[in-house]
Design goal:
Layout (H helix, E strand, L loop, with lengths): L20 H18 L1 H13 L6 E7 L5 H11 L4 E8 L2 H8 L5 E3 L12 E7 L7 H14 E10 L3 H10 L7 H13 L3 H12 L4 E5 L3 E6 L7
Parallel strand pairs: 1-2, 1-4, 2-3, 4-5
Antiparallel strand pairs: 5-7, 6-7
Helix pairs in contact: 2-3, 5-8, 6-7
Length: 234
Amino acid sequence: MRLTPLRRRGYEFIDDPNTAADAVARSLDDVACANALFGGTRAVAVEVARAIREIPGPRVTLLDVGTGAGDIPAHLRGALARRGVGLTTYGVEANEVLARGACRAELPMVRADARALPFASRSIDIVMCSQVLHHFERDDGLALLRELDRVARHRVIVSDIRRSWLAVAGIWIASFPLRFHPISRHDGVVSVLRGFTRHELREMVETAVGRVPEARHRMGFRTTASWRPAPCTT
């Protein structure tokens, strides 16, 4: 059997605006738990730590597009504060329920379409998204990557799930002792099957912005791509 299944679209309940608000809130908590336990938070934190070294000054701004519960920016603020780095974080969500959930993490929020971010070009030091790209069809995903590149001043970071039958089995089995909501269990499996290999993620970035990112497989079946934004042409 192929350890890397063919990529497929599927359907995630969290993308459906008709999904009940309490189910969405519970699912966000489950995603935050999975991020902490299975490498989602760590994959981003490693990339942000590398990016911080390139940025002069004691204060850094970070925009998390599709921030979900805001758990990753909250972790980054605490971790960097212990190193003496002041991190100001902002979040973007299109869905009102998701945006309200992120506010619980004391994250200033903007409701907006990720494909048309309401931020000036080169206005944020680090612009990132985690487990967001796989929610988009290819053309919309390319538009998202172009917007991340446009807004970022120093670094763009994209983190997503790496497709694997092992990851499918792992999230399904772990969801029971962790008492995940049935929606989280379903969406977790679909998310894995929507995920990217390192080569696929690199190709998308190159196609979208003409940059060759540093693409890596990370622990916990994660894939990251990181690059300096393209020179501004306006």
